[in-house]
Design a protein that fits this description.
The structure is a single chain. The protein is α/β, with parallel strands linked by helices. A ten-stranded mixed beta sheet has the order 3-4-5-6-7-15-14-8-12-13, with helices on both faces. Helix 11 crosses helix 13. It is globular.
């Protein structure tokens, strides 16, 4: 017998009234039902799972077996993202106390978990989710636009006034970021607590974008539509945000891990981290760093950067991606320019950490899939071919909205410290709940 799973649906009506917090409506999802672009499929003796759902469950079982996870009980059920195009994303169900949670699993699992038992597992957490939910916006006196547009030469030529400020989005945006901390920390904690007592140590690399948010400003600095003072303030803000986010994420993770905390080391950096001081100093001295300067310096950093930035390897990977995705609805990840440098950072991190044991991306499923798809192609061309990598994409319990800033939450101006949860029977009534309390109830490991 299949029981419904309980979720919350983010309502968008009325969210532009400043006094109204985000409203969430309790919903249930039974076998075969669809909601907010997701369909729940449940298998059994008479109706086994098929296609993407069956493969998702098989992959979850491979992770459980490969890492010898204890108390991680996979279920014959999956939630399928019906908006993901021809390659459906399917999230396999597993038991978390009395609840059913879901993970997407990606990567070459036989290679990732085959061979000798690892001494260290590295979890690369959050970069894709935070990129999606924290998209910087630049403003001039007359308009605002996504900061990433500054990487386009055509857009730069259209600029006829200086940038006056840079920031992030509305309260819905902040809610999406806060929820991601709980969602990701819950998956990390579940994995760590399920490892055997004499199992590997866990290194958590919490990848909060900072330096990569600086890159779009470099062309604007050269065109003198961004001042050194503006750049300096932006550099400082993103670093302060990173420190704050690491503190919040680590605090949540500590609570979830409890006595298992001594198994885990948390780092907060990525492969671009060491360039930060170099860029801060250069801009303060009035210099105008170029992309070619950054590429040259990174190639001298270590052999991995030299390998990933090699034009020969990049062109081979680019051709393979273009051929594979000829009929796909979205373009393959770029490898050139400033955008390519961010993608190369993901590859370098996966190759670096995957050489000493499995490197597991714990992130939004689409982002994790893109990172793995790119990194695995470089790994196949690397001389030692030793990098082991996989991906876990946890499915959130708040549905609605679309992928992007805010996650499932509406773009509203109201109170982000509380959420209103409607009565499941009488939707005209609701309870005002502190945001942290609700996220803890939804995502705490049981």
């Amino acid at each position: 017998m299949s029981f419904p799973i309980r979720r919350l649906l983010a309502e968008s009506n009325g969210q532009r009234v400043p006094e109204v917090p985000q409203v969430l409506k309790p919903v249930e999802l039974s076998a075969g039902e669809s909601l907010a672009g997701l369909r729940r499929e449940v298998g059994g003796p008479r109706r086994p799972l098929r296609g993407a759902s069956r493969e998702a469950c098989r992959r979850l079982e491979a992770v459980v077996d490969g890492l010898d996870l204890h108390g991680m009980f996979a279920k014959q059920e999956a939630v399928v993202d019906t908006t993901a195009g021809p390659d459906d994303l399917a999230y396999a169900g597993y038991r978390n106390g009395e609840e059913t949670d879901h993970w997407w699993i990606g990567g070459d699992l036989e290679h990732a978990f085959g061979g000798a038992a690892p001494k260290v597992i590295t979890l690369l957490v959050g970069a894709g989710t935070l990129r999606g939910r924290r998209r910087p916006v630049a403003r001039t006196e007359k308009r605002k636009f996504p900061l990433e547009l500054l990487t386009s030469e055509r857009f730069l030529r259209s600029m006829n006034e200086p940038i006056t400020s840079i920031g992030f989005g509305s309260n819905g945006h902040q809610l999406g970021t806060r929820e991601s901390f709980w969602l990701l920390a819950g998956s990390v904690a579940k994995l760590v607590r399920a490892l055997p007592g004499d199992g590997p140590k866990v290194r958590v690399v919490f990848r909060v974008p900072a330096e990569e948010y600086w890159l779009p400003l470099l062309p604007a600095l050269q065109e003198e539509i961004a001042s050194p003072e503006l750049c300096g303030r932006w550099f400082a803000k993103t670093r302060r945000d990173r420190d704050l986010f690491v503190e919040r994420f680590t605090g949540i993770l500590d609570k979830m891990l409890g006595e298992y905390r001594n198994r885990v080391t948390v780092l907060a950096c990525d492969a671009l981290d060491h360039l930060g001081d170099r860029l801060v100093g250069a801009v303060a001295r009035g210099e105008q760093p170029m992309v070619s300067d950054l590429h040259g310096e990174l190639r001298e950093t270590d052999e991995l950067w030299k390998f990933v930035l090699s034009p020969h390897h990049q062109e081979a990977v680019r051709r393979e991606l273009v051929a594979e995705r000829r009929f796909a609805p979205e373009d393959p990840p770029r490898l050139d320019g400033l955008t390519g440098l961010v993608n190369a950072t993901d590859v370098v991190d996966l190759l670096k950490y995957g050489s000493g044991g499995p490197a597991i991306v714990v992130d939004e499923a689409n982002a994790a899939r893109r990172m793995l798809g790119l990194a695995e192609r470089f790994a196949q061309r690397h001389p030692d071919g030793a990098a082991r990598m996989a991906g876990i994409g946890p499915l959130g319990k708040i549905l609605g909205g679309s992928w992007g800033p805010g996650g499932p939450f509406a773009q509203f101006r109201g109170d982000s410290g509380h959420l209103v949860v409607l009565d499941p029977v009488d939707s005209s009534r609701g309870q005002r709940v502190p945001t942290g309390d609700l996220f803890s109830e939804l995502y705490f490991v049981r």
